[in-house]
Amino acid sequence: MNITEKDVNDIAELARLELLPEEKKLYTGQLKNIFVWMDELNKADTASVLPTANVPGPENNLREDKPIVFKDRDAILNNAPDREYDFIKVKKVIQ
Amino acid sequence: MKATEIVKQVKDKKIKAVEILERHLKIIKERDPEIGAFLEVFGDSAMKAAGAVDEKSAKGLPLGNMAGVPVTIKDNILYKGHRCSCASKILEGYVAPYTATAVRNLINADAVIIGRTNMDEFAMGSSTENSAFKPTRNPADTTRIPGGSSGGSAAAVASGMCPIALGSDTGGSIRQPAAFCGTYGLKPTYGSVSRYGLAAFASSLDQIGVFANSVEDTELAFAALSSHDPKDATSVKYPESVKAPGITDLRIGLPMEYAAASGAMDAEVGSLFDETVKKLKTLGAKFVEVSLPHTKYSVPAYYIAASSEASSNLGRFDGIRYGLSVKGETLAEVYKKTRGRGFGSEVKRRIMLGTYSLSAGYYDAYYLKAQKIRALIKHDFDEAFKNVDVIFTPTTPSPAFKFGEKISDPIEMYLSDIFTIPCNLAGLCGLSFPAGKSKGGLPIGVQFMARPFNEAVLFTLAGELANAD
Predict the structure, then answer these.
(1) Which of A22, B271, B418, B463 is buried deepest, with most CB atoms within 10 A?
(2) How far off is chain B from A22, nearest CA to CA, in Å?
(3) Quick check: pTM over 0.95?
């Protein structure tokens, strides 16, 4: 797989990362090498293999779906960079 | 002093928890300026916690199984009211609003949490060089790295600054630094220790575990940590029926593919590994050759799977709810600038790698392919464990490397995890322990891997070896 600087720009946009020009150059080279190395995986025959996304225990342990009150709201809200009353402030998203 | 000895003496009122804490704070003050294991020492809250243990003791109340034991936690585990940064600038100033279940379990057992330790940013790395704040030095040789990503925890335990430390192991991040620093390092079975309150990196692989200086201490901490937690859907109740047979009844598997890879392995690692095999044989263990044919694919498959999960998990760091927030004209600009400046080089590289692997047109070739390889690797272990109870391998291909030696070549750094990654991909438990030292005095570690929920087998074998020495 050949990674170009355009690919790096596209991926950075998808990942919401603003990269410096020197970072773009560095990542283009490094990701190119990494994906060449990843292509090794094509040597493994997986035609009849079902993918495994996880190796869970015997069963999922889902808890009962009922709300639990988190008592220390301020501890959460105090971490927000921009806050007004009990709200986290964000930039306007609807014009 | 060993943790088991501390518990005994505190329970017998021979020593106060506060005195134990003071001793360790003194060692930290003396040694940590050179080592750099800690990002923060929780002096005040630790003193209060130790005082509370002593008060309980004075009142004649029963004490927990970790009474007075000073414990450090990796900086990606939450402890309410204390800072947690994942060694990243993007979380600078973040204060934990709740306590991780693993930490809660330790506190309930009367352990004393004394600080948070340095790590590779968001647990991505094998040398702790990716910390946004400072390097950590290997106590055995300060010109070398301590391993990673839980390098601070390993260095703290190895230098006597605390008897027990928590780390997290996604592809070897406990076992590899344990091997490099000369401590025990346990990656428990996936699901056996709750991850509620652990900052997620790769959720299908992440596991909280233990650093200690002996088998007994590792076992003590694991017993306190392991619990079923409804707040972690992957947490399971530990089956009580698993009992380890004696060493003479255990069959130990030696993977032939690892022997074949020995050309790339440091000669001293190989000879100490062989020596440990001899010791085990003397103790009556039986060895069987096993085959794990897909081992060679485990590192690239891991880096696709783990980076894909990371690219999704780290989406939450956007400058809105916590940590760093860089101003921008639009919301999208706030996200991009915050993430661009807040994340370090390796984290951005992995987010890019994961985003690409998951993107339209490449999903089948990379992410899905890696998941299929993971199934093959798991199948390899299932087959091997039909014939053996435990698998024995070196923990790392070489002893600790020098600062800067691998940092500019990501693939070279990734390959240092070759022996530890398969254990995570297959959801097994693994224990790295010291096999001895190189001629240059560098610790070398070897590891046992066992079926899920067979930690008892790991402890039995490592315990017999330690007693025989």
Answers:
(1) B418
(2) 12
(3) yes
